[in-house]
Amino acid sequence: MDLVNAERATAGCGPLTVDSRLVAAARAHSADMAARGYFDHTTPEGVTFDQRITQAGFRWSYAAENIARGYSDPESVMRGWMNSDGHRRNILNCRLTHIGVGLAYDANNRPHWTQDFATPR
Hints:
The chain is of the alpha+beta class. It contains five helices and four strands.
């Protein structure tokens, strides 16, 4: 959270607020990817990140998601996201106001990271 908000501050964005519903959605997605061995914003059944955020009870007007796997710590995953145009755009999008972060490990101890961002209606 501190790493995300530090990057946002350099871009002139306000800090994100942690929301427990977004945390639940992000943690569940990381756990699902780790348990079932896929890596995608959409589950094998076709459930998208915005549907997961809605199912977690967050009524949003704007939403985004970052995922990553294999990065061993928060600093390295943030470097990876900031070096990726799409991920960096999500982190530095001043329209987004809330965040939830998830981390889960697969059977090979490989980390799966999810950041769910949203702005309430």
